[in-house]
Write a structure and sequence with these properties.
The chain is an all-alpha fold and 22 residues long. It has helices spanning 2-9, 15-21.
Length: 22
């Protein structure tokens, strides 16, 4: 849910990296 949205907003290879970056 939230991970998918965050992954699309941030150019991260994995949802974990995108979430950690934010």
């Amino acid at each position: 849910m939230k991970k998918a949205k965050r992954t699309k907003e941030t150019p991260a290879t994995t949802p974990s990296t995108g979430k950690r970056l934010k």
